[in-house]
Amino acid sequence: MLLLSQLAMAQAPNYAKLDFWAAHPDKKDASDLKEPSDKKYDVDVFYIYPTIYAEPNFSSFSASLSDKDLNKKIEETAIFHQASIFSGIANVYAPFYRQMHWDGYFVTDPAEKVKAKQAFDQAYQDVLKAFLYYLQYNNNGRPFVIAGHSQGTNHAEKLLKEVILPVQHLRNQLVAAYLVGMPIQNNFQGLPPCENPTQTGCFVSWRTFGNDSVPLINGDSIVCTNPIDWTITSTSSTKVEHKGIRFRNGKTKAKKSIIAQSVDGYLEIEFTKWPLKIIYDWGNYHVADYNLFWPNIRENFALRLEQYEQQTVKKKP
């Protein structure tokens, strides 16, 4: 009979196998766009998906990598709607990892908090293992982007601070970081917040709420990028600047339907069109942090890569 530690090791990911990647340039996956028409850059995106493991009845705070239903849900939600933003413009890598259950963020019992912390740490170790494998066998010195959402952003922040930014050549390869869905402070060494639409070597971050809702964690110390006009000021974007929303079926429509403003460390939005005002009156738009601005994010991503490419050419002797 296997001990629990041995069982955990037996279920650990092997990133040499494509099955352990939710998105990878060498496989067909849910991030692939059917008709990618944008310019393709020789840049990689290492994307870390949010918490999808949220079933009400669970036996472990750690998700199983052999859970086919969960993996399918990851592919059909986060990979399809978020990782796809970068597809066709850059190479997308997204590892499956043993994510911590959603309840791990909210438990109060001391014993349960220990279990949740262990699950979170194990999830990060999977992400770290995947990133190190990617660096050794896939990157080949290319520039890269780190992108995450929710729990994925927590792991991305740790990866940046502990692995990437302390190493000069990795810091030089980092084009930008997308740290979405969590309260992120401006406390990175060598990675400032992006202040305009073309800046590179910086990070963007936002959390989306309606104008009648306020997150529990807020304040001016938290960075909030407006993903419509790409500033970090409190100025409101205009509806003309909004390029549309990506809906569940993968179609993008409803242009000019959102105005957004950075307020106290979070993004406050207002729908300008009916019936969106009624249908999507949620208050907290965490699950749609990417979808609400999908075309804006994709367009700006290409713009930043173009700027990075021009800067790199200028630096060459």
Report on the structure:
The chain is built from 7 helices and 11 strands. It is α/β, with parallel strands linked by helices and 317 residues long. It has a domain at 11-26 and 38-182. The strands form 3 sheets. It has a 6-stranded mixed beta sheet with strand order 1-3-2-4-5-6, sandwiched between helices. A 3-stranded mixed beta sheet has the order 7-11-10, with no helix packed on it. Helix 2 (68-81) links the parallel strand 2 and strand 3 (91-95). The longest helix is centred in the middle third of the chain and has 30 residues, at 110-139. The chain is globular and about 50 Å long. The chain starts with a helix and ends with a helix. The model is unreliable at 1-10 (pLDDT under 50).
> Which secondary-structure class do the elements indicate?
alpha/beta
Low-confidence stretches: 1-10
State the helix count.
7
Distance between the termini: 63 Å
Beta-strand fraction estimate: 15-25%
Quaternary state, please?
single chain
**Envelope shape:** globular
Largest sheet: 6 strands, mixed
**If you average the pLDDT, what whole number results?**
93
SSE topology string: HEEHEHEHHEEEEEEEHH
**Structural Rg:** 19 Å
Task: Give me the secondary-structure topology.
Blueprint: H1 4-10, E1 21-23, E2 44-48, H2 68-81, E3 91-95, H3 110-139, E4 144-149, H4 151-164, H5 168-173, E5 174-180, E6 202-204, E7 208-210, E8 245-246, E9 252-253, E10 258-263, E11 266-271, H6 276-279, H7 294-315
Parallel strand pairs: 2-3, 2-4, 4-5, 5-6, 7-11
Antiparallel strand pairs: 1-3, 8-9, 10-11
